[in-house]
Amino acid sequence: MARKQQSTPSYGPPLPSSHHLVRLGAPQGSNNYLCVDAEGIERLVEVSKPLKRNKMLFIMRGDFAVINLFPTVADEKTRLVGEILHILDKGDVKEWKKSENWPRGFEENLEPTSRECQAEEKMECEEQSQMEESESRP
């Protein structure tokens, strides 16, 4: 007998109020990641259990994700505030941008890719070496 197919929830453009779109930052260990939302608020979130079970899950710094925030109590002091529900792939990001629901905060401060960083570092090194050569000449 075949296993029943479970319907996967949609993480398309109109998100429920409890979900937020964020950019993932540096991993903090034990499946915890720093993330920044479109307003610039930094939060610590964990990978949800259904995502942990996925054997081929790759999370990279700069990826976009949908998170769910935990209910908070005023006197509770905890750093962990939510869980990652879904990692957006390139197709998901295109869908969000086409629907014009993409947050403006993510458009303004796009991080350079590693190739761009390497090119900038190379140019800075070349400029430094040229300056040193010109200073050493009489």
Give an overview in words.
By secondary structure, the chain is an alpha+beta fold. It has a domain of 92 residues: OB fold (Dihydrolipoamide Acetyltransferase, E2P) (Beta Barrel). It contains 4 helices and 5 strands, in the order βββαββααα. Strands 1-2-3-5-4 form a 5-stranded mixed barrel. The longest helix is centred in the C-terminal third of the chain and has 23 residues. The N and C termini lie far apart (86 Å). This is S1-like domain-containing protein. One of its GO terms (cellular component) is nucleus. InterPro entries: EIF1AD, NA-bd_OB-fold.
Per DSSP E runs of 2 or more residues, the count of β-strands stands at 5
Instruction: Please identify the structural class as seen in this structure.
Output: alpha+beta
Radius of gyration: 21 Å
Q: Tell me what the CATH architecture of one domain is.
A: Beta Barrel
GO cellular component, one term: nucleus
InterPro entries: EIF1AD, NA-bd_OB-fold
Protein name: S1-like domain-containing protein
Organism: Cryptococcus depauperatus CBS 7841
